[in-house]
């Protein structure tokens, strides 16, 4: 039987990582078994950077994209949007935890850094169905092609696009595009151990996150999550 990409990813769960109980929720086939939490800081390179073009709506971690809305009933559309909102809310909680860690001077050595920036697939989906850490879940992860795949941030924003209009004209998509480039400065500063600089970049991203959340019909107050 020919094995699909999801099946191959599932095989990766047999590889163990000797890291903290939280960090070992992620796995990658090529990693040695003696990596520490600090080693995660070197993994994130370009895989979790949002400077690439927005992810194709046809690709989502759960197998559905904005194209899946064609012919759907209003109730089904609402359920799909709610699922995206649940995932985004979880991403916000991890973003908040990252900000708190940076405020304490913690960067790549913290578990919350791993749970936000790690680009590799989780061993198992979390309670809201996320199969990647917060940033990769929000902006998408590296796939076989040039573009990022998945990304509930874009997919949720695209659901607010009016029929017959391009997604790029949607306020929610515009605010997503602005937000998606705000995470790289946090990562770069954190990888250098510059917690204060990373926290300052986090504050800028937080303001953009609030705007995005309001545009996708969620509470703009980050601390409400």
Notes on the protein architecture:
The chain has helices at 5-11, 74-103, 111-117, 134-139, 152-158, 171-180, 184-191, 195-215, and strands at 141-142, 148-149. It is built from eight helices and two strands, in the order ααααββαααα. A two-stranded antiparallel sheet has the order 1-2. A hairpin with a 5-residue loop joins β1 and β2. With 225 residues, it is mostly helical. It is 43% helix and 2% strand. The longest helix is centred in the middle third of the chain and has 30 residues, at 74-103.
* Mean pLDDT metric: 75
Question: What low-confidence regions span 5 or more consecutive residues with pLDDT below 50?
Answer: 1-21, 28-70
Order of helices and strands: HHHHEEHHHH
User: What is the beta-strand fraction?
Assistant: under 5%
- Write down the Rg: 17 Å
Give the class from helix and strand content and strand pairing.
mainly alpha
Helix content: 40-55%
Overall geometry: globular
Instruction: Give the distance, in angstroms, between the N- and C-terminal Cα atoms.
Output: 44 Å
Largest sheet: 2 strands, antiparallel
Main β-sheet, spatial strand arrangement: 1-2
Report the strand count. Answer: 2
The total count of helices amounts to 8
Spell out the blueprint of helices and strands:
Elements: H1 5-11, H2 74-103, H3 111-117, H4 134-139, E1 141-142, E2 148-149, H5 152-158, H6 171-180, H7 184-191, H8 195-215
Antiparallel strand pairs: 1-2
Helix pairs in contact: 2-3, 2-5, 2-8, 5-6, 6-8, 7-8
């Amino acid at each position: 039987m020919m094995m699909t990409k999801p099946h191959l990813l599932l095989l990766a769960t047999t590889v163990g990582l000797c890291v903290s109980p939280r960090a070992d929720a992620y796995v990658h086939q090529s990693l040695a078994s003696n990596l520490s939490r600090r080693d995660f800081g070197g993994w994130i390179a370009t895989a979790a950077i949002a400077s690439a073009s927005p992810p194709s709506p046809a690709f989502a971690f759960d197998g559905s994209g904005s194209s899946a809305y064609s012919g759907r009933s209003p109730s089904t559309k609402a359920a799909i949007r709610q699922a995206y909102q649940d995932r985004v809310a979880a991403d916000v909680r991890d973003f908040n935890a990252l900000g708190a860690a940076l405020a304490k001077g913690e960067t790549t050595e913290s578990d919350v850094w791993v749970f936000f920036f790690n680009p590799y697939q989780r061993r198992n989906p979390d309670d809201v169905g996320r199969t990647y850490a917060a940033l990769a879940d929000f902006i998408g992860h590296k796939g076989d092609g040039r573009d990022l795949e998945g990304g509930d941030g874009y997919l949720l924003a695209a659901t607010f696009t009016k029929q017959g209009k391009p997604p790029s004209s949607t306020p929610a998509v515009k605010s997503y595009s602005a937000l998606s480039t705000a995470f790289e400065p946090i990562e770069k500063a954190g990888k250098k151990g510059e917690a204060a600089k990373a926290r300052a970049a986090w504050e800028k991203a937080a303001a953009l996150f609030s705007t995005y959340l309001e545009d996708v019909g969620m509470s703009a107050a980050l601390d409400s999550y």
